[in-house]
Design brief:
The protein is 86% helix and 0% strand. It has one domain (2-182). Helix 2 (20-32) runs antiparallel to helix 3, helix 3 (35-55) crosses helix 7 and helix 5 (66-86) packs antiparallel against helix 6. By secondary structure, the protein is mainly α.
Length: 185
């Protein structure tokens, strides 16, 4: 059980540092300046994906063509990138902020669904037969990585103008979209 926990923790720390979900968390934390909400949404989405991976992942991955997930993820990244690129920057309003945070949750969930991390979690669960240890190790790893991302994003937000954060976010989302469509991400 301890081996499964340590392996899952190490796996997440190694694969998620600098990964798209960490960068998404940095961007949304910088944009919204609500670190606890962003961290909670990120961890909730990542926990849900991890549980699916542990419980039903091997069936879903085998039954759902990978190309389908790739195009959903790529389309969401592209839509968000274009939205941030083409809409004017206005003062933050609660409704638009909440919609954006809901989009963040959805994007985190879909971008990790069928991702290398989820597939690794599935494999680890099958090989160790310790789903609880794998889940706890993965969750702690996700917490560490996304806490770093939230702190970084929150620190950047005070130093950067909203228009710059918005444009960088747009470019990152469009790049993620291209990478997702090509199968690199």
């Amino acid at each position: 059980m301890l081996d499964a926990f340590i392996t899952a923790l190490t796996l997440i720390l190694i694969t998620e540092i600098g990964d798209k979900t960490m960068l998404l968390t940095v961007v949304y934390s910088a944009k919204h300046r609500r670190p606890l909400i962003v961290l909670t949404l990120a961890l909730t989405a990542l926990s849900a994906v991890t549980l699916i991976g542990i419980g039903f992942g091997y069936l879903i991955v085998e039954l759902t063509p990978g190309i389908f997930l790739k195009y959903i993820s790529g389309s969401l990244f592209l839509l968000l990138g274009l939205y941030y690129l083409l809409t004017p920057v206005r003062g933050e309003q609660a409704a638009s902020s909440n919609k954006s945070l809901a989009a963040f949750f959805t994007l985190m969930f879909i971008s990790e669904f069928g991702d290398k991390t989820q597939i690794s979690i599935i494999s680890l669960t099958i090989s160790t037969l310790s789903p609880i240890s794998v889940f706890i190790g993965a969750l702690i790893g996700f917490t560490v990585v996304n806490s770093i991302a939230v702190i970084l994003g929150n620190r950047l937000s005070g130093r950067l103008k909203p228009i710059l954060i918005r444009r960088v976010s747009a470019i990152l989302f469009i790049v993620f979209s291209i990478l997702a469509f090509t199968g690199i991400l």
